[in-house]
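Hi R.,

Here's the chain you asked about this morning:
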Amino acid sequence: MAPARSPLSKTDPLLRPGFVPEDVAFGNRTQTFYRAPYPSEGPVEAIDRSGRRTWEYMYAHFVFCWTEGASTVHVSHGTLAGSKMTLWTDIRIVGRWSGTVLAEFGRSWVAKHLAKFVK
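And here is the predicted structure, written out as tokens:
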């Protein structure tokens, strides 16, 4: 008997962009799962409540806020426009103050942070 095929093929045009097929073996059976990309927003330049300029970026619902002239980043959980829950206020960042540097830092930081929970 031929193995059952998933109703979604790896070239299904209805899949959202960025989804990556991953075949997982279960004994003699292989199943295709689709890994979704993490959501992201920004980077956007903003003014905080104290009137200071900041860059903000959200990746995987970790929100990074970098105040101009600071050497640390404030990390929260949430979205740019929605409510946020503070997680850390002193994550060190190095580089020229810009949205690009913050976005690269955020993606790298999230990958390292989430890797701690992989078995």
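One quick note: The CA atoms of residues 102 and 115 lie 20 Å apart.

Cheers,
M.
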